[in-house]
Amino acid sequence: MSHLPYVVAAWLLLVGLYGVVTSRNLVHAIICLSVAQSSTYILLLSVGFERGGTAPIFLDVPVGTKAVDPVVGALALTDIVVGATVSALLLALAVQAYKHHGSLDPERLGREQD
Amino acid sequence: MTPTLRRRVFLVAAVAAGALLLWGLTGLPDYGVYAGPYGDVLNQVAVAERKAANVVAAVTFDYRGIDTMGEEFILFAAVIGVAILLRAQRGETEQPPDEDAADRHAPATSNAVRVVGLALVGPVVLFGIYVVTHGHLSPGGGFQGGVVLATAALLVYLSGEYVTLRRVSPEVVGDLAESTGAAGYVGVGLLGVAAGATFLANVLPLGEPGALLSAGTIPVLNLAVGLEVAGGFVLLLSEFLEQTLVIRRPGEVT
């Protein structure tokens, strides 16, 4: 059980990619990509977790208290920001794809609008 | 490639990738056992060195400040990308939103949504400012607070009308906030160069940990990021709203 969070991260990545591969709707595919990406948050934070550690904020607790790794916290922040911007860009592309092809189905994107 | 074939190809690849992932992940230290040493070192020295109670903020805006600048510009570039992608296409026309048009009427929002939305705008703005300005003391900071601030604009849209949103936050305000925030971050970085240190060096007085005015450049950088994120997300919001409310395709019934 000591590796369960890592297994969850791997599962989320694969299940998200499965959604992207089999998706019939661009918006759904973008959400699946977000699911796949959320696995990286879990992986990062689990790597930096220390049992019994508190948040690395030394306002109410003295320096020297056992705390989790602040570096992975900062990396997860970067990760979330990049994820949000990628989603926004992809959604904008989906809006234009719908206008040009009259469909959000990736299978029909090659065709001209009837 | 048919969907069935694609699914089969993916399943084969997924089994292989999953096996590799599990093999690699089981080689990591057990969950809850931190192998270190960077986090432990930072937790020991960051408060004394930077006077920032929140070590994550010290990492984000000081030790890895240049990395966060890159992250800020990713956001900047993405917002510009969305604005370019969603500009009026060939053949599309911009029409006044329904509330402004003489011949059409937007369905009225329910009074409950309107009252709760409007009542929330003030507290949400205040909370956003609090989160931005206390990033070096407590969980939060410019990115988180900026998003909270941008939701205030969404509440204005939900509880009123699109034109009200445009009136309280015209596009130029979002543009200005976003670019001022991005430039402000670089400006604080150049402050370090001007003081004879390196780019993004923490050259402002550090103060005492736990005080609102402490940690040198970290709260200033948080302000810059908060401004940029709030402006950027308001712009994103209005670009997407414009698609449904203002832009009309040729031949589309309005």
Protein architecture, described:
The complex is a heterodimer of chains A (about 110) and B (about 250). Chain A has about 110 residues and is mainly alpha-helical. Chain A has a single domain (about 5-55, about 65-110), classed as Helix Hairpins. Helix content of chain A is about 65%, strand content about 0%. In chain A, helix 1 packs antiparallel against helix 2 and helix 2 (about 25-50) runs antiparallel to helix 3. Chain A is elongated and about 60 Å long. The model of chain A has no long low-confidence stretch (mean pLDDT about 85). With about 250 residues, chain B is mostly helical. Chain B has one domain (about 35-250). Chain B has 9 helices and 2 strands; from the N terminus they run H-H-H-H-E-H-H-H-H-H-E. A two-stranded antiparallel ribbon of chain B has the order 1-2. In chain B, helix 3 crosses helix 4. Chain B starts with a helix and ends in a 6-residue tail after the last strand. The model of chain B has no long low-confidence stretch (mean pLDDT about 85).
> Main β-sheet of chain A, in a few words?
none
Radius of gyration of chain A: 19 Å
| Dominant shape of chain B | globular
Distance between the termini of chain A: 55 Å
The best one-word shape of chain A is elongated
If strands are numbered along the chain, what order do they take across the biggest sheet of chain B?
Answer: 1-2
The helix tally of chain B amounts to 9
* Oligomeric form: heterodimer
Please summarize the sheet with the most strands of chain B: 2 strands, antiparallel
Contiguous runs where pLDDT drops below 50 for at least 5 residues of chain B:
none
Order of helices and strands of chain A: HHH
**Which CATH top level class of chain A fits?**
Mainly Alpha
Task: Sum up the structure in keywords.
heterodimer, A: 114 residues, mainly alpha, Helix Hairpins, 3 helices, B: 254 residues, two-stranded antiparallel sheet, 2 strands, 2% strand, globular
